[in-house]
Design a protein that fits this description.
Blueprint lengths: L1 E5 L3 H10 L6 E6 L3 E3 L4 H5 L9 E3 H4 L6 E5 L2 E5 L4 E4 L2 E4 L2 E4 L3 E3 L5 H6 L1 E2 L3 H20 L3 H8 L1 E4 L3 H21 L10 E4 L11 H14 L2 E3 L4 E4 L3 E4 L4 E3 L2 E4 L3 E3 L16 E2 L12 E3 L4 E2 L13 H19 L14 E6 L2 E6 L4 E4 H15 L3 H17 L20 H9 L5
Parallel strand pairs: 1-2, 1-9, 2-5, 9-21, 11-18, 12-13, 12-18, 13-14, 20-22
Antiparallel strand pairs: 3-4, 6-7, 7-8, 10-19, 15-16, 16-17, 23-24, 24-25
Helix pairs in contact: 1-9, 5-6, 7-8
Bound molecules: flavin-adenine dinucleotide.
Flavin-adenine dinucleotide (FAD) binds next to helix 1, helix 7 and helix 9.
Length: 437
Amino acid sequence: MKIVIAGGGFGGLRLARKLNNKRGVEVLLVDRFNYHQFQPLFYQVATAGLDASNISFPLRKVFQKSTNVRLRMADIYRVEPEQKKLVTDIGDISYDKLVIATGAGTNFFGNKELETHAFSMKSTVEALQIRHRLMENLEQATVEKDPQEIERLMNIAVVGGGPTGVELSGALAEMKNYVLPKDYPELDFSKMTIYLLEGSGKLLGAMSEKSSVQATGYLNRLGVTVRTNTQVASYDGKTLTNKDGSQIQTATVLWAAGIKGHVPEGITKVETVRGNRLPVNQFNLLEPYQDIYAIGDVASMVTTEYPHGHPQVAPVAIQQADNLASNLLAELAGKPTHAFSYRDKGSMATVGRNLAVVDMPKPKLHFGGFLAWLVWMALHLMLILGVKNRLFVFLNWVYNYVTYDQSLRLIFREFHRPSDEQPPVLQARKFMEGEKV
Ligand SMILES: Cc1cc2nc3c(=O)[nH]c(=O)nc-3n(C[C@H](O)[C@H](O)[C@H](O)COP(=O)(O)OP(=O)(O)OC[C@H]3O[C@@H](n4cnc5c(N)ncnc54)[C@H](O)[C@@H]3O)c2cc1C
């Protein structure tokens, strides 16, 4: 059985590992990158706390000793279900069974202006771009004469009060409090404001009320200006305008307010559901197709407990991969298959040093502060792929903790030719989406 896995993220990689060296299956893992990205720590790359290579792991290294898993670095354009093939930039790839594990990308909800000027953080490259932009703005501020322009260059607006927005704004506030004044003595950091804008009435909407309140308190303590019930209407690269008419002058808007499934073209027999996700049955099968499955962020499995599909988090992708791997092997062996059931082990978010919040479902428990922060760190260290990466991340954290400093505030300049018509941010995004620029 030739199984093609589209996407080597949390779900796709886990599935390939579970099928590794198993008899009767030949696996081809296809991803546009040749490395796995550990998305939960993107925000630390963006804020110069970690090097990009510490959270990326070469996919080929995982399967060096594999007898049946092969890899292709390719951009998937579309599926042709009748021909049982994937069309990619390196040619067609045929399959017996296809597993779509292409995850999700940023959702700007059709706002082209925001898409052009705001930064998103759905890949290592984008996290690095944020870092460059932050540093370049500060460099520019040191030579700028107009006080209003200096403030605009220093201000940052993070949009979206979910875990990513909370973690990002907390880390930015710590940079502002501990690191940047030492690097830029000529700038007055009391003029720098970090905004966190959230459309609903509270932060961390998917977590408990206690976590939401506690995280808001932590952010206030760090000096983040939190504005709930605030929806962004537009951003022209200089001025951010909210739907209530209020405005923020900022050269940096970081968008963490929505995601949409990365669905390859050609799936014509199925209509996507909320969040551009593919509706799958309890076995992750994309009915009425009999040979196409979807797992992780791109899949939506409706159950009584999860009427809008499971949360788009790594454990769901990993557990769906585990269940699908054992079902595919069971099918080959003529054994019964099992419906997917999600074991929710809880959720957490970190805000800064010694500050995090944790919610556990069974027993129902909430805790915050130093203990939660330790748990958050231990869990993330365990999940990072590769002993070397784990070690480097740990050492970095210890170094940052002891010195109140990070050492990665490097600017690798974007190469922007005068003839380029589009700003680098848009070019990079198009590149991420597979378009040649
Ligand atoms: C900033 C950030 C922080 C997060 N923090 C947490 C957290 O703390 N805890 C948590 O549980 N979850 C977190 N998540 C969510 C978590 O990362 C996702 O739920 C998880 O990655 C989903 O796994 P997946 O396999 O479905 O997709 P992904 O892991 O996103 O993998 C999709 C893969 O498909 C590839 N791909 C997509 N389209 C194509 C194409 N056309 N051609 C070729 N390849 C393609 C991509 O390159 C990628 O490797 C975070 C996400 C982000 C963005």
